[in-house]
Structure formats: C-alpha cells, structure tokens
Amino acid sequence: MEPQKILIAGSWETSPTLHEVRSPFDGRVVGTTYLASPDQVERAAAGSIAGFAAMRALGAWERSAILRTTATAITARREELAALLSAEAGKPLRDALAEIDRGALTFRLAGEEAERMIGETIPLDLNAAGKDRLGITRRFPIGPVLGISPFNFPLNLAAHKVAPAIAAGCSIVLKPPSADPLIMLKVAEIMVEAGLPKGALSVIPTARAEADRLIDDERFRLLSFTGSPAIGWKMKARAGTKRVLLELGGNAACIIDASAQLDWAVKRTLVGSFAYAGQVCISVQRIFVHASIADEFERRLVAGAATLKVGDPADAATDVGPLIDDGAAARTSEWIAEAVAGGARLLAGGAALDPKSPRLFTPTILADVPRTARICSEEAFAPVVLLERFSDFNEALTAVNASRYGLQCGLFSNDLAHVRRAFDELEVGGVIVNDVPTYRIDNMPYGGVKESGLGREGVRWAVEEMTELRLLVLADPQ
Fold this sequence. Notes:
By secondary structure, the chain is α/β, with parallel strands linked by helices. 40% of the residues lie in helices and 23% in strands. It has helices at 38-57, 60-76, 78-89, 93-114, 156-168, 182-193, 208-215, 229-238, 262-274, 291-306, 326-341, 374-377, 393-401, 416-425, 459-465, and strands at residues 6-8, 11-13, 17-22, 29-35, 121-123, 133-141, 145-148, 172-175, 201-203, 222-226, 243-247, 253-256, 286-290, 345-348, 352-354, 357-361, 364-367, 384-390, 405-406, 408-412, 430-433, 449-450, 453-454, 467-475. The chain has a 7-stranded mixed beta sheet, sandwiched between helices. Strands 9-8-7-10-11-23 form a 6-stranded mixed beta sheet, with helices on both faces. Helix 5 links the parallel strand 7 (145-148) and strand 8 (172-175).
C-alpha cells in the first residue's frame, strides 16, 4: 500500500520523513504517511492566506455545497472509514462507526450553518441624536485558522474545527494527532474532491516543534486546540493577539440522586465510564451516589463492569479496547496503586487483562478514594471510575465544584428542585440530566469553565467564534 500523501495548501505531497501508524492493540503497522518538513509547514501557513481570500469570496451556497457533499461522501464510505479509524485509534468498531456517523453529521450541520449566518437591524433613534439612523450587523470570517486535534476522536473532533471554519469562510491548517492522522487525510481527500479551493485546507502531520512554531504565527487569527489543560493554557499564553478556543477535558462527575431510576443510571454510567477505555474528555470519572441507594448501585455497577468484553477493537463484540500507548497504561496502574495505598477500596479491575498486553486494561471501580489522589484530582483518561457517597444534595454539588475542572456533569434525578439547583450552582459548561456527562450531540454548545477550557464548540457556536461581528450605521442626511 502506498503511503498516504499529506495536504499542503491544496497540493498532495510526500516528504523526506516517512511516518508509520501502528495499531494501539497489537502494534502492527496499519498505514504510513509523512511528517511535514519545516518548509512544508511554512508553505501551509503561507497558503492559508491565499486560501482565505478564496474562501471569503465564495457564496454561502458554495460553502454549503462543499460541506454537504463531504457529509454525503463520508456516509457513503462509512464502513471503509470506520475500519481505518478503528485500526489506527484502537477504537472498538461499533464506536468507530458511531464516530463516522457523527463526523458526517458535523459536516452536514456546518453546511446548514453556512446558509444562515444572519445579522440583525438595530434601531438607533433612542434619543434625538439617533434620529434617522439604523444599525446593521453582519458576521465576517475572522481569517486563517490553526486547528490542533487529539487522538481520541481523530475524525469528529477535527471536524469540529475544519467544518465550522469552512462554513464561516475561513481557511484552516489542521495539525492532526501523530498517533492516528490517516482518517483526516482521507476526509481531506473527500473535501478536495468536493470542490474546496486551493489553500483552504492543509492537513499536516508534523513534529511537535514545528506545530509549536505556528502558535506564535501572526498570520493565523484563531487557534482552536483540543487536548490536555497543561498544554492548552501554555498555548494561550503564547498566542498573542489571536483568538483562542480551548477544549481541555477534566475529571467529569456524575451525581446519582436518591430519586434516580437505578437500572437506567447503571446502564448509562457503564457506558460513560468505560467507552473507548475511558479516553474521552467527558468520560465519567467521579460518581457521587446517595447513601440510601449506594449499596445497590455499587453492586449493580460492579456486576455490569464484569460483563464488559475487553479485547480486539476490530471484534464487533468488544466493549473496551486498548489504551493508546504503554505510557497511558503505566500511568493508570501507578495512579490506581497510589489511591489504594491511600485507603481506597478496589471493587473491580485494577490491572491489565494480561501482563503481556498492558494496554488492555480491565474496567476499574474504586471507592473511598482520597480526593488528593491523582486518580481523583487529575484527568485519568482511562477505564477507571470512582464512587463516593453523599447524604445531602448540597454535599454532592460542593464536591463536584471542588474540582479545578468544569466541562460537563451528569445528574440522575427525578427531583425537579434538585435539577434546578444543580443547573444554578454547578460550575460546569453543561449539566446533563438523567444521562452521563459523556453525552454530546454535535449541534449543542460544548465547552468548559475553569481549567476545562475557553469558548464553545458545537457547529453554530464555533462559527460564531470564527467570525467577527461588524456594525454598519446608515444615517439619512439632515
């Protein structure tokens, strides 16, 4: 199989550095591509200027047509693209299929948003000085965008940068994750075939040092980054005058109130805790369960975790695939051991399925974890969930807010007063009632507060971030 070429300002190119993409499951080479050279990175950045001029000249119907055609083509190649995504990301096949579907939806939604970037009229005759004057607002594309996307959703989280940029009339240079860059290079092929102007998109797998240089580049007017808080906030500090959009994850909590429907709560928390081996920004990491139902909830959750199949992501029956690399597996083991040494109770899992395959980590449930333990206070990004009991609802709200993160929180409750209080008081970007914080659909605003991020994704809201509001005042001569 020929190596996948990289997209440099509309041109498909090779480079001197071949890059092997290996399966997180068994280490086999699933494909090859190239790492962009310093010269290619520079040409991608320079090309984004000409690409922006071409994009902003397109009509809304043209931008929409490109995005809708892309969505249709992704759906038509669903099985092929899902197999590639599963192989390079180690994502269970059914989850990979779901991501392909969501990616297509994201591009379709962006096509719709391209057609409804509307402004408004503002009456200015609020006093005598405003007589015979009218204000009109319109959104204009901000300029070239730099997007940096993570490994855990290599298609859809990248799509949440690329699709809104095209809808807004911007050009974009995307740095995909080195672990699994092939899926977005395939999507880039689809977008070019759909009629994307030259320079409107570059997809550049490259060394971190080369990507870091682009953060300081003043030709980019917006940086959109999804990844770890430690890296994201450092990028913001370096970004200068450009607008910055950060989605940084956290240690998402879920509250199981006394009035919760237990069967549903257990079913959804199993999914929210262990899907894609917990490598999801809004994976359930902390569960606060009311004391009156805690024993039964704990029993059912442990029993449910024991039924989950850990193994080959290509197997349609697999529930939990591998962690992304050996470093993630080693960190997970270390943090669990630290918690147990500090007094935590290990209720399920706690180790790799087989010592020879450390990335295949069993679904792990801990109770009574000290809040200072790293598995509680940091982002685990692993198939690990922690149980803590509460007797008063205010205790649970306070415990959730004690984290320095605040992306989303789940609340299983049929008490409307508790729902309203949670919405008022929880310091998070979203409260998901009777479901896990892991729930996301691509037309909703998505983002966090505190150290979990800055700004909002979700196609409509990302388009707003990637445009600037401009005012026109019309005055009749007196």
